[in-house]
Give the backbone structure.
Amino acid sequence: MSEAEKQAMLARGERLRQAAQIVGITHAAKSAGLAYTTLRDYMNGQEMKFSAAITLARVCGVSIEWLAHGTGPGPRAAGDAAPAAGMPETDEAGRRVPLRGGHQTVIPWHNVTGQTEEGLRIGKAWLDAALPRDPAGLRLLTASGDAMRPTLQDGDLLIVDTAATAVSGGALYALRIGGETVIRRLDRRFDGGLRAMADNERYPSQDIPPEAAAGLAVLGEIVWSGGLPRG
């Protein structure tokens, strides 16, 4: 790891410390489902998974852009009762709901993940430029395992377009198989079936016959993926 990468990770850890101190470090760790020692290591500059960074940003009331890069909405002063830009407010029943106005929007987690977080706050300008799709169908998933390496790494954040379930050759799709979410590259066969391919050569391709392909639970196309950068 280069010196520049080390300094970037230390700076990220210091931003996390600033945000966590406002809400309380113990509270931040508990709300994020982390051991106190794990949060301490993150604050000291240890590398963290992007999924952990997203949860900590939500708990601490900052944007993921600020936590990762130091840009965008940062920590609010203690005692400031107003919600941060793009943060969820509550409805009349006390449930937290995402804001729809302003310069940010919230992409929620796909319900099959069991996630309870509101989702990822993201700039509308970036979303319009990077993903020219209807945001209503966008959902978050987290990559798991090594089947799609080097394209996807374990813990990478994924944005899936749930409106795009028709398979077009070679794209990545999220599938629901046996109660689990699986990411594979799908291609159509001449007989109407599908070929499911992993990018890791350790995992062989699988041919899905037409009758099985017709009942395959395609959650949507993976339209963006990313991890927390070091530099």
Observations:
- Residues 77-101, 112-116 have pLDDT under 50 and may be disordered.
- Helices lie at 3-23, 25-31, 36-43, 50-60, 64-69, 124-130, 210-214.
